[in-house]
Amino acid sequence: MSASIYRTASPTAQPWICSLILFLVHSLTYHGCQSMPVRWLFGRSYGFVSPLQRPASLRQTSLNGAIAGIQPSGELHIGNYIGCIHPAVQYQNEKGDLIFMVADLHATTGNNQSVIYVLFTGRQENGRLNDMTKKTVATLLACGIDPTRTSVILQSEFPSILELHWILGTVISLGRLRKLANFERREVARDSDNMAADVLGSGCDTVIAGPDQECHVNLIREVAEKLNRQISEDLLRIPKLYVNSGFRVLSLDGAGKMSKSNVNDSRRVNLLDSSDAIAEKLRSAKTSTSRDASSPEVENLFRLYSFFSSEPLPDVANDTENFQFSILKDKLHRSMTSHLGGIQRRYEDLVKNEDTLRQALSAGKTRMLPVFESIVERVKHRSHYYKT
């Protein structure tokens, strides 16, 4: 009785079934899911395009790796170093496959001069952008970024980023931007989608940045997911924030994070500050009137000393001597100048040899320009931009 179940289909129906299967396989392989029978079966929104249908120039895959970036908008300080540069060096040494972008276009955001003006005239504040870009690249190499293992690139030398910036601008809503914590304080409307273009255009799946950038990375993830849905293909990688030991370094007056944009230079320790300058700044650093390790200003000093001395943070906090803040600041000064001394010596050698800096940027551009261009061309292709 049970055997009759397997004989219910007519023998003459089997060739039809085989023919249908072969026809669907042929359609998927040579015509993609945009062919009429496949769209009829699965719906028009199923937008898979066969690799054989896609132009050969668009078949390059994205990279597995990480991207970090920094603006040449001012002197790099220990907050930049702890939150971004040092974790990037660690990633480079452990995993490799790193891109470090000097975001010179971002550096013009918020200035009176427009990005277009800077690009076409090459002038910003009497050449300050040029000088700061040179100093930033030299500082990165002095901190341990190795151009033979890391692609060091200039944002302005990648025109495809601006194309992707425009496309992503149609995906990011103003309402979503307003949910960012620092939307009102900074011109994030012009900043966040450009950051998204930097990350998504690179094809990297990891972003190295400080913990305060988590909201931006979450926004980039949303943008990538939304655009992937629109083009019906998982083309853009969904990036994640690199988990590292970096922390949010506070200004020495305890008012917010340490920043290059703070007009008061005494509220930050720059990587190239002299020993005397560091000592003076630390002496004026705000502390607590009580021995309260949970005070933000005190915790900031504890964390800084732990980082530069390599002493575990619990040991620093449990050492009663460190609550004599003059002693703590003196110990922090010694450990900080010892750590930064090597960086400063390497910087002095590098900044005198501009050919080394240009070679590093040229090598990074040669490696990464085809990757950025390929990804943006794929986005344009799937977005049905007309191509001549």
TrEMBL record:
Q: Which UniProt keywords apply?
A: Aminoacyl-tRNA synthetase, ATP-binding, Ligase, Nucleotide-binding, Protein biosynthesis, Signal
One GO biological process term: tryptophanyl-tRNA aminoacylation
Identify the SUPFAM superfamilies for this entry. Answer: Nucleotidylyl transferase
First-level EC class: ligase
One term of GO molecular function:
tryptophan-tRNA ligase activity
Question: One Pfam family of this protein, by short name?
Answer: tRNA-synt_1b
Superkingdom, according to UniProt? Eukaryota
InterPro entries in the record? aa-tRNA-synth_I_CS, aa-tRNA-synth_Ic, Rossmann-like_a/b/a_fold, Trp-tRNA-ligase, Trp-tRNA_synthetase
- Signal sequence span is 1-35
Q: Which residues form a coiled coil?
A: none
Q: Name one GO cellular component term.
A: mitochondrion
Q: What is its EC number?
A: 6.1.1.2
Q: Which PANTHER family match?
A: TRYPTOPHAN--TRNA LIGASE, MITOCHONDRIAL (PTHR43766:SF1)
Family the entry assigns: Belongs to the class-I aminoacyl-tRNA synthetase family.
This protein's name: tryptophan--tRNA ligase
